[in-house]
Design brief:
Bound molecules: copper (II) ion
Radius of gyration: 25 Å
Low-confidence stretches: 1-76
Structural class: mainly beta
Number of strands: 36
Helix content: under 10%
């Protein structure tokens, strides 16, 4: 229990909630978690989670783990939001509520996670314990958007340095998204639990319906669930619309778990996701479909008194089709003829995690783990009006990773905790030969096909974090880390200048470089966490230097520039992925104060600067300006109202290398109200949410929104896409 929230507060809260059915479930999880958490330390993370089912572990005065149950409001180290708030918006947008967290928005379901100025595959994303992969070479199906908000159980972002155990290639940080699944119950009589929900939002005529049914006893649990979400082009500045920002997605998931014996658990899960016609106005094409299948088998067990094992094996396959003339008019590059293009990418991936945990070792916990995955990407570009035309965008572009790590976390002296970890990852990448009917591409093709395309990287990661409990109300943290990232398959094997860049959405065409080196980041971090009498203040500062940071630089290669003149006639010329040095620094904080028993204020603030550290003076691309949010929450037993101010300053420290545009600052107000009746047994479990985002209907543009690529009378091409105007929404949910 945190110093700022005395024990009676927790028990009172438990008591109130325990009356409802869902809380039986919550309490049973807590019982289980407490045991498991006993020796885990206090990694200071932020959990965004939903509706009374959220759990949280945070640094605590004695550096023992605490678990806070929270359905509403905010706590230090935890931002807990009902999935209902915000209506049908994509779950990745929840990241904006984390200090240092943000999203690069390229479409309604295409939100790329960003943490402290680093984004894309620099940030590790695990979905249900799986390092998921994207099908699209332009990250149309971003990893952080892979679970619809209504099925999200929790989103966890590691604040500061992510532990090496959080995954392979977590250079910029790590996040975990977990879906709702059924849980074992105490009794042998099967119990039926689940939820249904629905929502509607006006700015995009968005609606969603979904739910999950679970049947479980103490030995078996099954669940089946799904969600449908659909919306039209969203409005801004009155009746103007963003074309195309419509969306359509269905997901379906089933799972089964059983306990063959005490302390052994086996689980099977299968998730199917079908994204239909969905706009990505900041990319050159829109989504026709993306269909992905993820299947996994998991084992959690105790091999000996002091040895736990966790295993997960999984496959992840996907098919995708995108088009530049489905939801928009085909473009006329350079004012010439209309160009009709489609692309059909394919993903085949699979992997495993095997972690051994020694709960008690020298006053701490030891984890030794082995992770690995194999990923193959293909993509062919074709022309609907010319069956002869094709470009092999990627052919068997492979990235295989085999990794081992060891991490120890425990007490080294009174009030002093150390977390230290090492990870080695072997990366093996390759691509098959390519071809195209585009005549000027022949030189590039032959050069690529004759090159040695097989590349190895040896990645060494290390992290050490010291946490010191200075007083009952003050924790101090100091961390250092070296983190690495191998190039992506796009950065290495994009042989012909195109916009297949993992969603950079800067309107520029890029070409890869097989010989790129991997990135090496060196980082220091300082954090304070002060909490006393219902107030908390937790600022963090960091500095990192990245050797061989991968970024585009103007191409000086004659054959590449010639092809670029055909692909993007009259354009500013292609950029080639190159190794430069970069550094980033910043401060982010969370703070809050309990004003009365019912009223509280919370705020977060994020600031990051990123610059090139070698060569020409330049800023890094797509870095958010100083931004923050302040909310005032009034809560009674059955209902809650929360008024939130969200604002950002202008961003004029933009990147020159790709001609990034500046953005002005903005301020908006959001209101959310929620009612959870407790007057009747059957009414318990019901949640009704009503809210308005951007109450005044301000026209504003988030700096991390992509540039417009589609014909639209309301937004010129090349201008940054505005954020939604006033959005009124209602949501309904019933848990049992
Ligand atoms: Cu795509």
């Amino acid at each position: 229990m945190r110093a700022s929230y005395p024990i009676h507060f927790l028990s009172l809260k438990l008591d109130v909630i325990a009356k409802s059915l869902i809380c039986k479930y919550v309490i049973s999880i807590i019982k289980g978690e407490k045991k498991r958490m006993k020796n885990i330390v206090s990694r200071h993370c932020i959990v965004i989670a939903g509706l009374g089912l959220s759990l949280h572990v945070s640094a605590e005065t004695e550096l023992l783990p605490t678990i806070t149950i929270e359905g509403q409001g905010t706590r230090p180290g935890q931002i807990s939001i009902t999935p209902e708030s915000g209506g049908a918006l994509d779950s990745a947008l929840l990241l904006k509520r984390v200090p240092g967290g943000n999203v690069n928005r390229n479409g309604p379901l295409t939100n790329i996670p960003q943490y402290r100025g680093l984004f894309g595959n620099r940030v590790g994303v695990q979905v249900n314990g799986i390092s998921v992969q994207e099908v699209g070479p332009n990250s149309m199906d971003t990893r952080s958007s892979s679970v619809p908000k209504s099925l999200v159980k929790s989103v966890k972002v590691y604040r500061g340095i992510a532990p090496v155990s959080a995954g392979m290639e977590t250079l910029g940080g790590a996040m975990e998204i977990n879906s709702r699944r059924s849980d074992f119950v105490e009794s042998s009589t099967p119990e039926f639990h689940g939820f249904v929900n629905a929502g509607y939002s006006w700015a995009d005529f968005g609606r969603y319906y979904g739910g999950m049914l679970g049947l479980s006893n103490d030995k078996h649990r099954i669940n089946a669930g799904g969600n449908i979400e659909k919306g039209k082009n969203y409005k801004f500045d009155g009746d103007k619309t963003v074309r195309s920002s419509q969306y359509d997605r269905e997901v379906f998931s089933v799972g089964y778990g059983f306990k063959p014996a005490e302390n052994h658990e086996i689980s099977f899960d299968y998730d199917f996701k079908d994204t239909g016609h969905t706009g990505t106005p900041s990319l050159p094409m829109d989504i026709d479909y993306i269909r992905t299948n993820i299947g996994s088998i998991g084992y959690n067990g105790k091999l000996a008194d002091n040895l736990d094992v966790r295993f997960k094996g999984f496959f992840n396959r996907g098919r995708h089709r995108m088009s530049n003339h489905l939801l928009r008019d085909a473009p006329r590059p350079g004012g010439g003829n209309q160009r009709f293009r489609e692309a059909t990418p394919k993903l085949q991936s699979g992997g495993y995690n095997l972690h051994f945990i020694v709960p008690e070792l020298h006053n701490g916990k030891l984890v030794v783990g082995f992770d690995g995955d194999v990923t193959v990407h293909d993509s062919i570009i074709s022309d609907a009006t010319n069956p002869m035309f094709f470009i092999d965008n990627f052919v068997d572009s492979t990235k295989n990773r085999y990794s081992a790590f060891s991490e120890w976390n425990g007490e080294v002296a009174t009030d002093l905790n150390l977390e230290v970890g090492f990870r080695y990852t072997y990366v093996d990448m390759d691509s098959n030969q390519v071809d195209s009917t585009l005549p000027p591409a022949a030189a590039l093709r032959d050069r690529f096909n004759n090159a040695d395309r097989n590349q190895d990287d040896h990645l060494f990661d290390a992290a050490a974090i010291l946490r010191y409990t200075a007083t009952d109300s003050l924790d101090v943290e100091f961390g250092v880390a070296r983190k690495t990232r191998a190039p992506s398959y796009q950065e290495r094997y994009l042989w012909i200048p195109l916009e297949a860049t993992g969603g950079l959405a800067d309107g520029r065409i890029y070409v890869g470089d097989i010989d790129l080196d991997h990135e090496k980041s060196y980082q220091v971090e300082m954090g304070l966490d002060w909490h006393d009498h219902g107030a908390y203040f937790a600022p963090r500062a960091f500095y990192r230097y990245i050797v061989d940071y991968i970024q585009g630089l103007p191409s000086t290669d004659q054959p590449t520039n010639m092809v670029a003149g055909v692909i993007q006639p009259g354009g500013p010329g292609p950029l080639q992925f190159s190794n430069i040095d970069a550094h980033l620094w910043g401060v982010d904080l969370e703070t809050g104060y309990t004003i009365t028993d019912n009223l509280r204020a919370d705020a977060i603030l994020s600031y990051v600067r990123g610059k090139r550290a070698d060569g020409d003076e330049d800023n890094l691309y797509r870095i958010a300006p100083l931004n923050g949010r302040v909310s005032l929450t009034y809560q009674r037993s059955d209902w809650l109202a929360s008024l939130t101010y969200v604002g950002a300053l202008k961003q004029d420290q933009t990147a020159n290398f790709n001609g990034e545009r500046e953005t002005s600052g903005y301020s908006i107000l959001n209101l959310y109200t929620q009612y959870r009746p407790s007057f009747h047994q059957y009414a318990q479990g019901l949640t009704i949410g009503v809210g308005v985002d951007n109450i005044i209907g301000t026209k504003y543009t988030d700096h991390l929104n992509g540039l417009n690529r589609a014909a639209n009378p309301d937004i010129a091409r090349g201008r940054r896409i505005p954020s939604p105007g006033r959005n009124v929404y209602v949501t309904l949910r019933y848990d049992w």
